[in-house]
From TrEMBL:
UniProt protein name: Uncharacterized protein
Highest taxon, organism lineage: Bacteria
Organism phylogeny: Bacteria, Pseudomonadati, Myxococcota, Myxococcia, Myxococcales
Length: 105
């Protein structure tokens, strides 16, 4: 899989409003997730736990001789920084509309 283009705010809002949760985005690799956690809706950083990545990389190299950035980023979990949080999907959409959208999102 090649690096991906930024999702963009309009597409993120469309996915959110359609209830297509969770979803991830970021460019060139996914680094952000929109999720429902602990009864609230969040835009949150994806974090790759270093030890898990090291184990997965070793297993992949031993098995196939290959470890790609896509495999690494696929291990990301929405456990990092919370950029936006709201009690409902609609409230998150409102906050997301006003949020200064980073170019790599």
């Amino acid at each position: 899989m090649a690096p991906i283009a930024p999702l963009g705010k309009p597409r993120a809002l469309a996915l959110l409003r359609a209830g297509k949760l969770p979803f991830t985005f970021g460019s060139p690799h996914p680094t952000i997730a929109v999720v429902e956690q602990d009864g609230v809706f969040r835009v949150r950083e994806l974090v790759v736990e270093p030890t898990e990545a090291e184990v997965a990389a070793k297993a992949s190299m031993d098995e196939r001789g290959l470890w790609t950035p896509e495999q690494h980023y696929a291990l990301g979990k929405p456990t990092g920084r919370v950029f936006i949080e709201a009690p409902t999907r609609d409230a998150l959409a409102e906050k997301l509309e006003a949020y200064p959208w980073p170019r790599d999102w």
